[in-house]
UniProtKB/TrEMBL annotation:
Signal sequence region: 1-17
GO cellular component terms, semicolon-separated: extracellular region
Family indicated by similarity: Belongs to the glycosyl hydrolase 28 family.
GO molecular function, one term: polygalacturonase activity
Ranges in coiled-coil conformation: none
Superkingdom field: Eukaryota
The protein's Enzyme Commission number: 3.2.1.67
Function: Specific in hydrolyzing the terminal glycosidic bond of polygalacturonic acid and oligogalacturonates.
Name of the protein in question: galacturonan 1,4-alpha-galacturonidase
Reactions the enzyme catalyzes: [(1->4)-alpha-D-galacturonosyl](n) + H2O = alpha-D-galacturonate + [(1->4)-alpha-D-galacturonosyl](n-1)
Organism: Xylaria hypoxylon
UniProt keywords, alphabetically: Carbohydrate metabolism, Cell wall biogenesis/degradation, Disulfide bond, Glycoprotein, Glycosidase, Hydrolase, Polysaccharide degradation, Secreted, Signal
Amino acid sequence: MKALTLLAGLLPALAHAALNVTGSTCTVTPLPSTGSQEPDDTPQILQAFKQCGTNGKIVLTEGLFHIGQVMDTLSFNNVDIEIHGTLRWSSNIQYWLRSSLPVTYAGRSAAWRVGGTDIRMRGFGKALFDGQGQLWYDQNRGGSNQNGRPISLTLWHAKNVLVDGITWRQSQFWHTFVAHSENITMTNLDMNSTSNSQWSTVNTDGIDTDCISMKGNSSNVHISNVHCYQSGCAVIGSMGSNSAQPDYVSNIYYDNFTCTHSSNAAWIKTYSGTGYVRNVTFANFKFTDVNQPIYVTPVSDTHPPTSRSELHSPITPGNGEKESLLTLRCRKCIYGSSGCDSSRLKISDIRWINVTGTSRYNIGSAIHCSSAAPCDGFSFENVDIKNKDGKATKFLCSNIANQAKSGIPCTGTCPASWPQQLTGDR
């Protein structure tokens, strides 16, 4: 069998870095560091993907790989990708803001897009994705979503994919995102992004700050055996943000979740676009000290934007900070009371089964459905939520069809302006 070694560059400082090709297997070793200057391993990794990405295997050995450029790898076919080392994305924030790859949803973008058919990416519990997130949290200064802030890994137009045994630390933005894809299996993933400064991480979602989040046009998804710390746990949404593009979510099964000190446990949030959420099950949830365990709300506005560019164009509200129109219209409902009952995005057939745990405050659930499209087919089965301090627990409900048969022990109405996060008992 013929073996070929391609040195990554001609300079003496790079002489120890090699892409070794043996048959259909490409093995990449990292470039050595030279003083204070970070090397860039991206070219040799991309060459390996190109050369062995069809009916082959790519092996990234142990060691530290510096990723200084976007990776757009969308034509894999029957490939095994083994990652034994650390991928560390560069600290050049301006490059990423300028160059990250679009992923359609809400103006978001990615550092690495993976697409194709029959892709098996394994980390064996050794692979580490390091986004150097603290740099991003500090420069964002507690702001909201930032255009160009990259998602580490996005599955994009991918089919028949396994992602297994990868750890994320200090992600730049969302840890991973799946779009326009089918038959995706993701197992044994460990994600943690924690700020050590005064500035919070802000939206370092695991899958879309939420741990697992289903965005628009997701269907037939089963997610199980997940432990989430200090984040929204299992989420549908947000969706319906673009009135010109219907969003559909159906047949979602969340199973065996543990939520610790989370903001919410099992919740749904929508904008005032069109589409639906239907046939969603939250089953076998256990949680401790959760801010607001069950939460459903439409986030809506009576005058939706006419285009994507309008939706995401930066404008300046009264506080002087530039934000998108989408963000401000979100606030009209969550932080005010305007337009919360105008949403036409239907939510139906939602089940909470075997959901037990403690709430931080005296609210077990808060469900406000749009009066323009009341929710139906809601049900609680063996739901036991108690306040951690032993206070009486409230279950608030509005605009739920056939509420008396739902099993939801409604103790009062849920106002249109009910907040996503609580700061005390209500």
